[in-house]
Amino acid sequence: GTDASLPIIVIAQWSSVETTMDGFTNDAILSLASFLHPHDLVHLALTCKQFGGTRESIPAADVDAVSEFERRSYICNDHAQVVVERSWSLMEEAARQRVQEAKHIEWKHSDLLSRREAESWIAIDHRLHLMRTSPLVFHRLVGNGIDHVKNDPAHVQIHERALISGQYPLGSSCAICQHVMKSGRHYAEFTVTREGYIEVGVMRPIEGWDTREIKTMHPMGSNDYQDFCTQQQQGDEGYEGNVHCYLHQTPADSHGRSNFLRNNDVVGLLLDFGDGGTLTVYKNGRCLGIKKEGLSGQYCWVASMTNAFYRSAVKITRAPLPED
After folding, report:
1. Which of 23, 96, 132, 229 is surrounded by the fewest CB atoms within 10 Å?
2. HSE (side-chain half, CA atoms, 13 Å) at 205
3. Measured between alpha carbons, how far is 302 from 300 in angstroms, rounded to an integer?
């Protein structure tokens, strides 16, 4: 007899199942990989040669069909098999495709997705992820004396060679934020992570202006920038008014250094379109008052740095509106 009150325990024994990727084409794998975080692409690349290697053995008859991404050469093993040497791995190609799509759609005017020397596509894809998840990033860099800090799109610095190489003339370079402000109230903070000559403020968006050949630029003193804004006024209401740029300039310190910000200084900017277009400046928690009026149209946050003696660095963050 059996006791109905006793529980029935079912023990299931799992047998080992050998899995294979032979049924998946590279196109199918790339489609699946397009949904993964850049960190996951790295992990997959480390699992097997198919994902992380640059060589793949395929039937010789299929060589003409290999067109997913660039290949360097063919190495013939025999008449039946050919080893394809690719320029990058399958996971790198997944990252490259995602970056290229973003460059042609949402970030077509950004400098952040350009490949830097021997940088991997997964590294660029990670930067794209930060751009999409960060409220404020510096997506345009104008001038060759400035770059990003450790792949952080919200953090910029004077280029490490800008102070010692003659290829970087003395002058200012600008980092321009991607966020376009047209109405309402907006507040951002700029935190100095390395002291130096830094000015922060607002300027017009510069989509459509090719700035790749510009070595130095300060928007308040650039005739090219002023001409661009004047041309845009003819057909774009976003450039209405006469205030195309404002950078907050700090008075000289005890060493006679104007526009010099120290380590850990925090400069806050409040742009208010509802009060006649005003820009209020805060420094280290203290309100310095309204510094500019008559702002109308559209603006972006901007940081300008000069490569003179100091390799300065500054980071932008969105912060709550300060209390009145």
Report:
1. 23
2. 18
3. 6
pLDDT in tens, the chain (324 residues): 444 444 443 333 333 333 455 667 778 888 888 888 878 888 888 887 777 776 555 555 555 555 544 444 445 555 555 555 566 788 888 888 888 887 777 666 566 677 766 778 888 888 777 767 667 889 889 987 888 998 788 999 998 777 766 666 678 899 999 888 988 999 999 999 999 999 999 999 988 888 878 888 888 888 899 899 988 888 777 888 889 999 999 999 999 999 999 999 999 999 999 878 999 999 999 999 999 999 999 999 999 998 878 889 999 998 888 876
Contacts of 285 (CB under 8 A, 6+ apart): 266
Q: Which of 101, 81, 94, 76 is nearest to 26 (CA)?
A: 94
The span from the CA of 246 to the CA of 219, in Å, is 8
The answer to whether 154 touches 138, Cβ cutoff 8 Å, is: yes
Q: How far apart are CA 224 and CA 227, in angstroms?
A: 5
Q: What separation, in Å, do the N-terminal and C-terminal C-alpha atoms of the chain show?
A: 82
**What is the distance between the alpha carbons of residues 61 and 79, in angstroms, rounded to a whole number?**
10
Backbone torsions φ then ψ of 6, nearest 5 degrees:
-75, 140
Report the C-alpha gap between 252 and 32 in whole angstroms: 57
Which region holds residue 260: left if phi is over 0, alpha if psi is between -120 and 50, else beta? beta
Bridge partners, 157 (sequence order): 147, 313
Structure tokens at 107: 């970030």
Residues β-bridged to residue 190: 267, 316
Q: Let me know: does 221 contact 304? Beta carbons within 8 Å.
A: no
